[in-house]
Design brief:
The protein is mostly beta strands. It has two domains: 1-90, no CATH class; 93-164, no CATH class. Helix content is 0%, strand content 41%. It contains no helices and 22 strands. It has a 16-stranded antiparallel beta sheet that branches. Strands 6-7 form a two-stranded antiparallel ribbon.
Length: 164
């Protein structure tokens, strides 16, 4: 059983004292058009759909992905897509920076600015497809080379070169 609360700026659906609404319907609908999906009082939405869709703006809507109240999106996709085109990457409420340079090189950084990427994926991919695996600012890979330049491969663990 849900309770609908109508306020001057929004409508809220409450279940057991927390923002919640089933059937993939928003738990909060703002008069300006913003919508928020919540499960048991926390921002959440399944099937890679945004939990917050901002109010309409001339250039579009800002979208934010959450899982159980934490800003999060899987598969190296941005958890925030700003209406003006900027994007931010988050996993488990931790921000990761992604940079794509004009020459095509791509880099992933942790919140401290260190090169870092989870899931045995390279933190640097050069335009020519050379790759480097980094973890917490150190070249690192356990099950393969941490650096691939052309046909050459180099192994590192925790920043230390491993002679193979």
């Amino acid at each position: 059983m849900y309770s609908l609360i109508k306020l001057s700026t929004r409508k809220e659906w409450i279940r057991f004292g927390a923002l919640h609404r089933g059937k993939d319907l928003p738990a909060v609908e703002w008069l300006d058009g913003q919508k928020e999906w919540c499960r048991n009082g926390k921002w959440h939405r399944d099937k890679d759909l945004p939990a917050i869709i901002g109010c309409p703006e001339p250039q579009g809507r800002t979208k934010q992905w959450y899982k159980n109240g934490e800003r999060h999106r899987d598969n190296d996709l941005p958890a925030i897509e700003w209406s003006y085109g900027a994007k931010q990457w988050w996993r488990n409420n931790i921000e990761y920076k992604f940079v794509e340079y004009e020459n095509g090189t791509k880099e992933w950084h942790d919140l401290l600015g260190n090169l870092h990427r989870n899931g045995d994926k390279p933190a640097v991919i050069y335009a020519n497809e050379d790759k480097e695996w980094w973890y917490n600012g150190k070249r690192h890979r356990l099950d393969g080379p941490a650096v691939i330049y052309g046909g050459k491969q180099y192994w590192f663990e925790n920043g230390e070169f491993i002679n193979v």
